[in-house]
Amino acid sequence: MNMNQHPSGDERYSDIDRTIEHYDFEKDALLEVLNTAQEAFGYLSEDLLIYISHQLKVPLSRVYAVATFYHMFTFSPLGEHNCIICTGTACHVKGSDRIVLALSEEFEIKAGDTTPDGMFSLTTARCLGSCGLAPVIVFDGQVSGKETPQSVTKRVKETISLSKEEQLV
Amino acid sequence: MNFANLEELAFKEQRRQEKYRRRIFCCTSTACLSAGAGLTRTTLDQAVAACQCDEDEVEVVQTGCMGLCSRGPLVRVEAKEQEPVLYGNVSADVSQQIIARYVPVGQSVDNTEPDQNEEQLSSHDFLHFRSSLRTAEKKKELDRHIIPLDSPFFVKQVRIVLTETGRIDPDNIEDYLASDGYKALAHVLENMTPEEVCDEIQKSGLRGRGGAGFPTGLKWHFVRQEQEPEKFVIVNGDEGDPGAYMDRTVMEDDPHRVLEGMIICAYAVGASYGYFYIRGEYPIAIRRIRRAIRDARKHRIIGESVLGKDFRFDADIRIGAGAFVCGEETALIHSIEGNRGTPRIRPPYPSKSGLWGKPTVINNVETMANIPSIINKGASWYTTIGTEKSKGTKVFALAGQLRNTGLIEVPMGITLNEIVNEIGGGVPGDAEFKAAQTGGPSGGCIPSTYLDAPVDYESLSKLGSIMGSGGLVIIDDTTLMPEFARFFMDFCVDESCGKCVPCRVGTVQIRKMLDKIISGEGTPEDLQFLAKLCTLVKNTSLCGLGQSAPNPVLSTLKYFKHEYDDMIQKDIPVEAGNGQN
Q: Of B20, B122, B277, B579, which has fewest CB within 10 angstroms of its CB?
């Protein structure tokens, strides 16, 4: 077994190690390391924060303090499907809050939460920068503009019921 | 590599481009990609391949933003000795029609039935499609996609920062070189002392485009005069205002221009290392800047010896992780140092004690992008554009309830009226213009009575708003102002870093008051208290975020007080939300 590998055998830890090495174990690179971890794992678990603290030789308290300061870091896994709704000014003026409302009513979750079955996460973002196409959403990585509450709810519901069917088969 | 080598590369690239009879430019910036430009691009390529024409006939180029984002995806056709033609809403079908219109079929085209499972558009299918277009009706259908380039949206603009966006391939350094790229840098290294560079920038009257409007040349002088051997340059690409995407566009579409500005700045102040601080939400901008740095290093434009001269410079990227406050310079420095992005008291200013305690220049992306043009054309040219105190142009992200939305660059001093009604084409439908919001959550709302005000730093701040980084959102009469003010206050509550009390507690209290008023439970005393609280937060907060957070409330209280009064006097809940549709 490779001695440098994480005991769990999880390859994603080597991504983190590579970033740390790239920055010569500089403590200043904490944000870069957290970014890599967030990208590789999708969220920052407690174990992951401990691992980073250990590897970078930075107190866990500082790792936690920095990670919780920035919005892009999340601490629980996302649902299987994820809809990000832009709530920037242009999208707001064009009614993006009604899309958020429609989805939270449909799936009975607040923005930022995931349904109990782990199928769907509803997230909001401060401006995706496609203001000319407001209101803009990103559903499962697909950006689309000029949306309405009806069009989004329909698409999300269809996708989720399809993926539920697939799971049954 | 010295500049003569680069000129040779540039010359070669110009020859290569001139070889083509037609060049078809496809916008692949974020806004157009959201509208489906990815498919447009591949369809254009496939249709050209299906024509099997001479190689010199046509080239399809991916470019950055062409401006009119609301009509995306955009495609522009340039043919030799002909006026360029711009097409909007170019779907896959329209792209095929465009190719059919402009690209001839090769002489020896292979018109056999395609094999099965071909995903590629075959020549057979394309020729078939082509022949179906020969009717006058079909031609008219394509003509409807033409956007006249002499419309006010284009004519009213003056492009300096955005000269090359929408014209060059951002991933291709040769394309930038062929458009006079790095010429300003070469000139500066060859013919100017650092002091002369600072003087030139100061003479041009360029002011920081991040919002505050501090004279750029003066800032450079401060850092240049510091005796410290190690200095830094930071390009601030942490564009956090919701509704603003100018800096992203410049970084995505013309990354070398920003890098060139940065290197010139480094030479002028005596720095040998620079950082791009870019929002994590901008993956394409990060990728393109990273590539620009790599290509520049490869061509020895940066490195141990910049363009063969005795000047060392290198650059790297730091990625922001979603904190609005990091646009504030001291917070940004803390973030680059790997800490929580909280601001600190100034002075000392970063020009004295910045990154790791060293003298540091921090300039906004757009400011840096102005530098190469100022050097190339001279400060006296730059001062002919704009007003007495605000020189040059400003890029705005024009959004909201307008016919034309997108990215525009206008000379300072243009009136809001020209932007809204001529460039923007006015408010669509039956709705009426109500206010123009500039400066995002730090700015204010300007009502229709002040539409004739010129857009410059002083006039906007006199009206209770700010120039800001360049978000310009138009609101029509379906939006209620107190509710709109609460939207921004929500943002500030979320984004307050929590370090100082007035901002951390004050913003929450302001939002509570707004909630109370909007729900119809407010009293006239509440309104007075709200105004007082806003002034308090404005005067006592530590950094720009808190100091400007009350602006949206204060400006709506000033110009739209009757809406607040209505909510109080009628004593009935006013429906929140904006009744669009």
A: B579
